[in-house]
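User: Hello, can you help with two protein structures?

Assistant: Certainly.
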Amino acid sequence: MIEMTGQMLPFQSDPSSSFQLVARAKSGDQLAIELLCSRYLKRLETWAHGRLPPWARATADTQDIAQETLVQVIRRLDQFEPKHEGAFQGYVFRTMINRVLDELRRANRRPSGAPLDTQQLSGSPSPYDLAVEQQLRDRYESALLRLKDGDREAIVARIELELSWAEVANALEKPSIAAAQMAVSRALVKLAREMCLER
């Protein structure tokens, strides 16, 4: 059941809605917790799939990250106050973004141990091309980490996770798709400026 519509939805009385499940889970209902986890685990794995570059996958894969995100969300459920039906999905999504960014930071602190392949086929990128691509990726990641949380989340939501505009609006708690588009646009301008500073 996809709950994101790009608009704030009124509270629903459907006992299987995320809003109702969160309320039950907060009161200790184990079945509600299991239903929430099963509902969001696949979504998180889909969001995370391929978002961690190969050089950042040494200690975690997307399944681990998805499961760890849900564990963190459930542990902090007592601190979460849903304001609308899509609020829980936005909360889960933001937690996931932060988890992925933590992995990227951790990977950036580790030196790369992968040697160049001397048996590379001629159709593959040259070592120079790979080095340029890595340098550009490093500049992007470094600039991304210097942005404010809101700007970073906007870019990761739209560019990294390729969420629809309606999903971006809900995840960033923006009142409309237009507001989400404006937030992403401004964040991208800031990112470009940061990347230019590293030249």
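That covers the first. Now for the second protein you mentioned:
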Amino acid sequence: MEQQFSQKGTRATSYKMAKKPSQRGVVQTHTGRQKNIMKRRKNRFRSVVMLGLVAFIMLSPQAQEALLGDFGGVEEFLQSQLAPYHQYPNEATYTLAKISDISMTGAQGNGMVTENILIPPVLNSALSGSAQFSYTNGDPGPASVTLQETLELTLVVAGQSINIPIDGMPDKPYADRITTGAGHEVWWPPVGTDAEECPVEKCVKVRVFLNTDESVQYSFQIRVKSTSYSWWNHDSRVDAKIAGKSQGISMDTSGTFADIGQRGNGVRQSDFGGNEWYFRDNVQNYAIDGADALVMSTADAIAASLPEGESSNAYGFARATFDYLHAYVSYDRLAPGTARSGPECLAAKTGDCDEQTNAFFSIMRTRGVPGWYTFGVLGDPFLSSEGWEAHAWGYILLPMKESWCDDRGIVLQSCFVEAQVDVVNNKWLLSTPTAYVDWVEEADNSGTLVYEYYHPVSSIVYTSGAEIERVRTFETVGDVEFAGGSYKVKKYAESLG
């Protein structure tokens, strides 16, 4: 996850709109050339399909029907058998340690470092914590599932352990701070604008003091229980053991772009559906930009690729965008320090986690589909001490079809899903225990909250001529407990026709 610096400002772009409409599937690139972005996908499995057809036609009609089941056709079935996959535990309980090593070198003197460490939220399948749907007959609807629950918080500073309330309550302001035996300070204040308060969300503040050639380590250890959840209703692609499937969304049950404003009182669309988000004045562009010419032409081509009559299907457009990014944008492990914007990611055809999310959200916002960020830490599928890294992914709001809601007596304003999408890790409307959530983005036109999240070290003070270095790492501490078995998530495009 790379830093995206921000201040509010004006929009600038180097891309130009095509002078005339392009044919179906063709976009105008930033160089002015036209390229058919849908052609590659059609040819990708041609050789495999031809080989599979030879075997398939040898089967009886009954065997063919049973074999295909819920797949969209022979090609999709073959892809499902050959596609790479990740395997995830259904439930996991583990301790994640977020470690900071601070060292001071150079001139003789002393230094001080203050860091804000977010207290993790209780994360539910319905973000409000209530049932996803409310019914006209007074029924409460399906219960919200707890996806992430903190069991214990411990801060270890220079070897001294301090127990932290799992919700950070009651507040411990700076005046009531804990001072360790080595003189370091710990407190968990309310959220506010004062330097000694939490700038984003409830947090633990750590202040360590160093002398020249001295090092200090502090480790924030979170014992967490995490559960898988799917907001996707797809018989052959979502394992039955994963919670949420029966209330999930699909192409057939999705509403249109016009329905979005009629869901959740339009709050998400107002907060996270606008064209532009998070202006970075050091690079003079927005991280998310749905008004950029390349973004708009790409979105138009994706919409045109949907089945006839479905170009405004919110689910279909979002899923086709997800599959498009898999097909044409590679993962960049050497991404620049300041993240590429959505348009820059599309132009470069490469990007890391937040850059591809910028691209996904940029395309979503051309149609007013709300998308907002989730920040946290990503582990390996079975949560070993290796492989943890900072990560960014997102949420989108998708409306259920009005007739689907009416048939079930569901209040229209509550008839939608708010679901996680992780483009680079092929997690479509899926939450897994391997993704630890620090913070779900809140609406903030100034960009201040996101900036503060990316800058957890709130102050560094040291003697002139000295240098202070902070190295951040993550690891699993102790045993990991699994429950509910495991499941595979395969990577191949969804047949939307």
